[in-house]
Design goal:
The chain has one domain. Helix content is about 0%, strand content about 60%. It has no helices and 16 strands. Strands 3, 4, 5, 6, 7, 8, 9, 10, 11, 12, 13, 14, 15 and 16 form a 14-stranded antiparallel beta sheet that branches. Strands 1-2 form a two-stranded antiparallel ribbon. The radius of gyration is 18 Å and the shape is globular. The two termini are about 15 Å apart.
Length: about 190
Amino acid sequence: MTLFHALGPFASSGGVVAAPGMVLMKPTSIAHSGTSATLGANGQVTFTGVTSLSLNGCFTADFDNYVVSWQSTTGEQVNFRMRASGTDNSTASSYVRQQIAASGTSVSAVRITDDKGASFLSASTQAAGSWFSIYGPYLAQPTATRGVNAWDSLNARINDQACTHNQSTSYDGITFFTNVTAMNGTLTVMGVRS
């Protein structure tokens, strides 16, 4: 039985129960193609002029679900591949995504099956940000993701991308990459505590 106290939930044994929330995850290492990428002491990754950015050891058995907070200073379609022990998974037709974009008064949608997923479409304006949720990457089961970003193009624009990766593999990392424009910005990975 769990007892609740004015200062928060407490276990019946007298120990404090961890409250739901997010925990900063520090990758064990990063790799990149392009100009530079650095891993900060608190786990924040800062990158400049990179076309790919790999995070190793950022998913563990401690959490089932994760969120990547992304702030960019360049506009680009950011793709991803799940990563295990330093190797990206690029199995053909294993990533399926649905994308909905709303800009001005128009809405468009597309479905794509590929060897990579699309996490979000980042933007270069100050009034912009991206939030990428990853469901069960460390579990040996198919992984689902959802990336949402918004920015001030045409006063308000939203891009929503859901993706499934059908390989029943445990992943400890992820690679973000673009096909054309180099990426500049920062990201943070957080484990979701339920």
